[in-house]
């Protein structure tokens, strides 16, 4: 959005090519619409699998922590469980990080539209309306979920770590 407005920075170029400017803004909005559709498609495809993967990974992290704590005498087995648990932590991070990126980029669209100086006098009113509508839509962030129960992101990753440590503490106290 900023690039489109910067290309048409001066009033002389804006007057002569307002239809070109409008077409470029329309193209940016179409690309945004396609990106939203793609996020919805990814969400509908992987949401149910994400909840299964997260639950299974939470259980395996907890059990590997527990087994590493129980096998104090067998250092080789303990080391295997520690490595396995670290691998699972990296695995679940790779499942949550794309969700964080989608959220971050989704929120950057509003800021990018606002920073584009869409309110200048030389910007045609039709373009102002289009940019304003895009700003209104981009206030609602896009995100990926795990079955609609939780939002994938770094906050969810931290919650998974807390939950696995809580379950580990419970298992240790029961034993």
List keywords for this structure.
about 180 residues, mainly alpha, two-stranded antiparallel sheet
Overview of the molecule:
The protein contains six helices and two strands. With 175 residues, it is mostly helical. It has one domain (2-174). The protein has a two-stranded antiparallel sheet. Strand 1 and strand 2 (150-151) form a beta hairpin. Helix 4 (75-115) runs antiparallel to helix 5 (125-138) and helix 4 (75-115) runs antiparallel to helix 6. The longest helix has 53 residues, at 18-70. The protein is rod-shaped, with a radius of gyration of 24 Å. The N and C termini lie far apart (59 Å). The model is unreliable at 10-14 (pLDDT under 50).
Low-confidence parts, pLDDT < 50 over ≥5 residues? 10-14
Number of domains: 1
How big is the Rg? Answer: 24 Å
Biggest β-sheet strands, sense, barrel: 2 strands, antiparallel
Helix run count = 6
Q: What is the H-and-E element order? A: HHHHHEEH
Helical fraction equals: over 70%
Strand content: under 5%
- Mean pLDDT across every amino acid position: 85
Envelope shape: rod-shaped
Strand numbers in spatial order across the main sheet: 1-2
GO biological process, one term: signal transduction
InterPro entries: 7tm6_olfct_rcpt (IPR004117)
Protein name: Odorant receptor 73
Keywords: Cell membrane, Membrane, Olfaction, Receptor, Sensory transduction, Transducer, Transmembrane, Transmembrane helix
Itemize the secondary structure elements and their pairings:
Elements: H1 2-7, H2 11-16, H3 18-70, H4 75-115, H5 125-138, E1 145-146, E2 150-151, H6 154-174
Antiparallel strand pairs: 1-2
């Amino acid at each position: 959005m900023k690039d489109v407005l910067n290309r048409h920075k001066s009033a002389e170029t804006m007057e002569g090519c307002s239809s070109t400017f409008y077409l470029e803004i329309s193209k940016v909005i179409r690309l945004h619409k396609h990106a939203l559709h793609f996020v919805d498609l990814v969400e509908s495809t992987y949401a149910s699998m994400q909840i299964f993967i997260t639950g299974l990974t939470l259980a395996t992290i907890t059990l590997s922590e527990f087994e590493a704590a129980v096998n104090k005498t067998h250092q080789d087995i303990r080391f295997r469980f520690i490595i396995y648990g670290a691998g699972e932590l990296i695995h679940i991070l790779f499942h949550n990080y794309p969700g964080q990126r989608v959220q971050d980029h989704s929120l950057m669209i509003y800021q990018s539209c606002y920073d584009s100086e869409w309110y200048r006098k030389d910007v045609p009113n039709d373009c102002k309306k289009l940019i304003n509508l895009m700003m209104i839509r981009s206030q609602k962030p896009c995100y990926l979920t795990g079955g609609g129960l939780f939002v994938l992101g770094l906050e969810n990753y931290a919650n998974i770590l807390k939950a696995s440590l809580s379950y580990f503490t419970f298992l240790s106290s029961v034993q």
